Amino acid sequence: MSCHNYGEGKIILTMPYDSKGIFLKRPNRFLGKVLINGKEELVHIHDPGRLSELLYEGNEVLLKEYNNKKRKTKWELIGAKYKGNWIFTNSKFHRVISERILKDAEISPFGKVDEIRAEVRVGKSRIDYLLTKNGKRIWVEVKGCTLEENDIALFPDAPTERGRKHVEELKKLIEKGDNSALLILVFHPYVKCFTPNEKRDEKFAESYWNAINKGLKVHPALLQYDGKNIIFKGYTSLCKNIHKG
Q1: What are the Cα distances from residue 186, in Å, to 24, 47, 138, 145, 155?
Q2: Rounded distance, CA 196 to CA 205, Å?
Q3: What is the pTM of this model?
Q4: Beta strand ranges found along 123-227 (DSSP E)
Q5: 105 in helix, strand or coil?
Q6: Sorting pLDDT into bands at 50, 70 and 90, what band is 105?
């Protein structure tokens, strides 16, 4: 994995919030109830994870307003308070964030590449990116990480069969002679290391470690959200002495 911190402080995406609110409850995966300017409003949650450490009654959240009549809700959740910091919580923007990282040779873990293709089908899956560099192929899958425990970034925060299949696919590509990597968007910029969340998804963790042993590279990018900008803060390392395999 890459630990270089060149380009630290570079703004990846500008995404200012339109209103603050107080989180009340989450009726389902995609909807939340938030107190905004003294009024209870339904807001869209664009993240299938549990986010239970971020979305709980009484926590302060950040919202984006969309005046589109086709939408069921005009508000969308983009951030939540955690230990005094804002954590970006909208997975809709993972594509643009990851694309900007990969296209910027200064901060990309792969440096300058010759070609970037998005959403490339492999078997029964689609892998987020296929990079070409010096005639070699590098397959890259992107995952967003919003869970932190004891200064450790953890993924996933809920069981993810889809995520496990992606890792299995990356391992197969390595076995066929290509290079594969995970780009983890870690929205807790002060963590010390990253590891799979064995406690919440043992199968994903098993696939992850098997793929690591085959040569999978993992690049956990640290991203800070200040309520206006998403800022690149370098890369963290992979946790050691956690997995016994």
Answers
A1: 25, 14, 21, 5, 9
A2: 5
A3: 0.94
A4: 125-133, 136-145, 147-149, 152-155, 179-186, 193-196, 217-225
A5: coil
A6: very high
